[in-house]
Amino acid sequence: MNDEPVYVTRPYLPPLEDLLPYLEQIWASRQLTNGGPFHERLEWALCEYLGVEHISLFANGTLALVTALQALRVTGEVITTPYSFVATAHSLLWNGIKPVFVDIDPETFNLDPAKIEAAISPQTTAILPVHVYGRSCDTGKIQKIADTYGLKVIYDAAHAFGVEDEGGSILRHGDLSILSFHATKVFTTFEGGAIVSPDEKTKRRIDYLKNFGFADEVTVVAPGINGKMNEFQAAVGLVQLKRMEGVLAERKAIDGRYRKLLSDIPGIYCPQLPQSKLHNYSYFPILVGSDYFLSRDRLYARLRENGFYARRYFYPLISEFPMYRALPSARAANLPVASSISNQVIALPIYPGLPDSVQNMLANLIRN
Ligand code: T4K
Predict the structure, then answer these.
(1) Which CATH architecture has domain 16-103+110-241?
(2) Nearest residue by C-alpha to atom 4 in ligand 1
(3) Relative to the CA of 8, which ligand 1 atom is closest?
(4) Measured distance CA(126)–CA(145) in Å, rounded
(5) Which of 81, 137, 171, 184 has most ligand 1 atoms within 8 Å of CB, for mutation?
(6) In degrees rounded to 5, what are phi and psi of residue 192?
(7) Domain ranges across the chain
(8) Using CA atoms, how far apart are residues 340 and 254, in angstroms rounded to an integer?
(9) What pLDDT digit, counting tens, does each position of 311-355 carry?
(10) Would you identify the CATH topology of the domain 244-367?
(11) pTM for this structure?
(12) CA distances from 308 to 2, 70, 133, 281 (A)
């Protein structure tokens, strides 16, 4: 039994001294939001850090998703994954778009490109894949399908901060990528998010949309929303960014230790990381097989009884929630891989500062 509760994640908070000078500047200037200097600085800093050219900051990742769909004028039906956080599909409903669920790949847990074409209808206008746990989708195959059928691609990259493939940031793929900077994410501004755009013109449209549609003081070009990130959030982001290297190194070490500790436990499987150039180790999912001596839910309950608040990300599937389950594509028979993974998965605690002793305790609990 662990004395303190151990959560699936804890935010990394940089030393308060790093933040105080920024807060003093905000207090002195009284510019609190609406594209202030910290907002501008964070956009530049993130472009440089992530290796992308155009980024628009948002108050959270969900507003970024909703706005991305608006920006590309996506309508009709959109192909997406059931194996994600519910915000992915909710962003479609908020835009009056019908989600069409397609099954996932058993290795990466991402949308299976081999199953996308069969789900395309005359109403399909876009694909909304998710880089689940920060593992890159098969971006090449998805783009090929999109090009063949004239579809847009919006990546939900909420988990994929800083992930790179051979060509650089995976955020460059598709028509747009969205990020989340929520408290539970690798990089956080408490609440926050962003859209990565391929060009200046698209970024400008997104910037109008997140500010009610204002192009200038007297011109409203679209029915926009209030999606703006404020100066406090941006300042938190700037101080976080300075410490990212250490954060990622700690996450990598925790990932490696789990793999060693759990490798020989019958029935426990640690999905391999694909060969991306750079990972962010944002989650540590394990699969509890039928050859393990407890069911997944018994193990989950046992962890909780002992103070380990692991999570079943992602269970239930999005397609099982009431507002989706009547869709023809939501049938379990259409989503056998996603259903199976969702019934086996547990995300174990991973965050900077997680002590080795706690990892050992957790592994012992799973072993015995
Ligand atoms: N797309 C995808 C693929 C996503 O995963 C998400 C969000 C989005 C889109 C939408 O982005 P945002 O609009 O959120 O920016 C959490 C988060 O709320 C959510 O951001 C995240 N995905 C999702 C995967 O996880 P919950 O309901 O599991 O969070 P909660 O409050 O239970 O927190 C989990 C644990 O984290 C707690 O047990 C303790 C720890 N924690 C949490 C918070 C909020 C802290 O230590 N400090 C904190 O401040 O949804």
Answers:
(1) 3-Layer(aba) Sandwich (3.40)
(2) 85
(3) 35
(4) 10
(5) 184
(6) 165, 165
(7) 16-103+110-241, 244-367
(8) 26
(9) 999 999 999 999 999 999 999 999 999 999 999 999 999 999 999
(10) Aspartate Aminotransferase, domain 1 (3.90.1150)
(11) 0.98
(12) 8, 40, 20, 19
> Over the chain, what is the mean pLDDT?
97
Amino acid found at 57:
L
What pLDDT score was predicted for residue 70? 98
- Tokens 């876009």 map to which residue? 126
- The two domains 16-103+110-241 and 244-367 share their CATH topology (first three levels equal): no
Going by pLDDT thresholds of 50, 70 and 90, the confidence category of residue 115 is very high
Give residue ranges with CB within 6 A of ligand 1: 7-11, 60-62, 84-85, 87-88, 130, 156, 158-159, 180, 182-184, 193, 309, 311, 313
Token couple for 336: 């056998």
Tokens 């847009």 found at: 152
pLDDT at 2 (0 to 100): 65
Alpha carbon of 157 to ligand 1 centroid (Å): 14
